[in-house]
Structure formats: C-alpha cells, structure tokens
Amino acid sequence: MTTHDEELLARVREMRERGSAPKQIAKALGLRPAQATALVRQVAEAAQAHTPPDERPVVGCWVNAGWSAGLDMTGAPDWAAADPIGREPDPDTGGFAQILLARQERASRVTVTGFLVDVYCLGVKNETDPEVMGSGSLTTYVPMYYSAFAHPPLSISVEQAQTIVRDAVTYARGLGFEPAAGFTDAAVHLGTPPADRPTIGFGRDGKPFYFSGPYDDPRKVVQTLERTCGPGNYDYVAHL
Fold it and tell me: Is this structure's pTM higher than 0.85?
C-alpha cells in the first residue's frame, strides 16, 4: 500500500467516524461512488479485524429445545418459559444443551462456534472450533447442526448462552471435571455473562447425574463423583 493509499484510507476513516455516508465521502474526496464504497468497506473490515471476538456483533444464537429439562429454573423463569419442551416429563433432550453462536466476522462473513454441554454433570463435553462462513450459509448450517433433534432450535440471547456454558463449566469443576480440551479457544468467541445474570440450578433434580457416553471412561467418572460428592449424593447410568 502506497503512502497516498494510506492517507486516503485515513481520511475515509476520519469521515466515517464523524458519521459521513459513502456518497458524502466520494464528493468530498473527489472519488467515484464505487471507489468510496470500497474504501468504506475496507476501513470497516480493518476495524473489525482489531475487535476482540467476543465484542463482535451477534448475528444469531441458538440452543436445542428441551435443554432445561430437570434443571432448577427458579432463578431464570423467562428462560424456562421459552423452553416448553423442557417442562415435559422425561424429554429425550434432557441433560444436554447444544449451543451455536454466530458473530459478525466482516462484511457478509460470520464466525460460528458450538458447544455441547452436559448440564447434569460433566459441563462442556465438546466444542466446535470457530469456523468462518458466508452469512447466507447459516440458513442451511443451523438446521444441519441441530439435525439430531426432533424439534427446531430455540433462538436465545448471547447472555443466556454465556450463562449456560460458563456456569455449567463452574458446576462441573466443582464435581472434579474440566471442560473439553478446545474450550478455552472457543470460549474467546463466547464472552463472559453479566454479573447480574439469571441463575440456573444444574444437575438433574438437584443432584449430579451421569449418563455415560461412547467416549467416556465411566469408571473414572463414577470414582470422581464418589470422591467429590460422597455415596448417595449423585446418580448415574453407566456401563462399567
């Protein structure tokens, strides 16, 4: 980039910060409208690149229906009301919250990040590494991400997603379990919930409940629960 180009970008940046529209910039700098529009887009993309991932605009955020089944939602009545399937007896989705978050990456591009959360015991079991795609791809990606569920996902706020994920991790750590290995990098895109957020009571009906998965070490998990919770203070279904 030449010195002239850098100076031109700097002037466009200054005018945008003052609220000038592309047409006004074109007229003031003697540019064609298409040139001014391209420079405005370049300035915006450069600014976005320096914005921390968790401060970029949220394009969409979702969780599977039934995620709240078995949880104590007394402290989050609005979230409970938005998940009617969670109040049904023994829904198939009980125990798991599958969360997908899309943030603006740059013009017409988004970054999607996913978390599979065991809300009864283990916290974040898996995460989907941040992936950049065209914003139009969300219309097919979101249904595909939730294709294992019988009901369409629920649209939620980023604060709700942050609360489910972050507080489930805290709950699991209290039981002796750390989140999935890639959680730290993925959580950069999630961000931190506000201090005055609603509260969720994790565990099934107030107790840790472990249901073994295909990639778990059930014996190790049960031994950990025995140590951290004590006999009779947790439930499990596992092939040992």
Answer: no
Long-range CB contact pairs, 93-96, < 8 A, 24+? 93/64, 93/65, 93/66, 93/67, 93/69, 93/149, 94/66, 94/69, 94/70, 94/120, 94/204, 95/69, 95/70, 95/119, 95/120, 95/204, 95/209, 95/211, 96/64, 96/67
Radius of gyration of the chain (CA): 23
Query: In this structure, what token pair is assigned to residue 220?
Result: 């190790």
Is 93 in contact with 85 (CB distance < 8 Å)? yes
Q: Cβ-count burial of 54 within 10 angstroms (0-12 exposed, 13-18 middle, 19+ buried)?
A: middle
Tell me: the pLDDT tens digits for 78-119? 999 999 888 876 666 779 999 999 999 877 889 999 999 999
210 contacts 234 by C-beta, under 8 angstroms: yes
Q: Per-residue pLDDT tens for 155-168?
A: 999 999 999 999 99
Instruction: Identify the bridge partners of residue 60 per DSSP, sorted by sequence position.
Output: 102
As a whole number of angstroms, the distance between CA 108 and CA 123 comes to 33
Task: Report DSSP state, residue 75.
Answer: T
Q: How far apart are CA 25 and CA 11, in angstroms?
A: 9
In 3D, which of 209, 93, 116, 215 has the Cα closest to residue 165? 116
Q: Are β-strands 154-155 and 58-63 bridged in parallel, bridged antiparallel, or unpaired?
A: antiparallel
| CA neighbor of 70 nearest in space, from 34, 95, 104 | 95
Packing angle of the helix pair 183-190, 158-175 (nearest 10 deg): 150
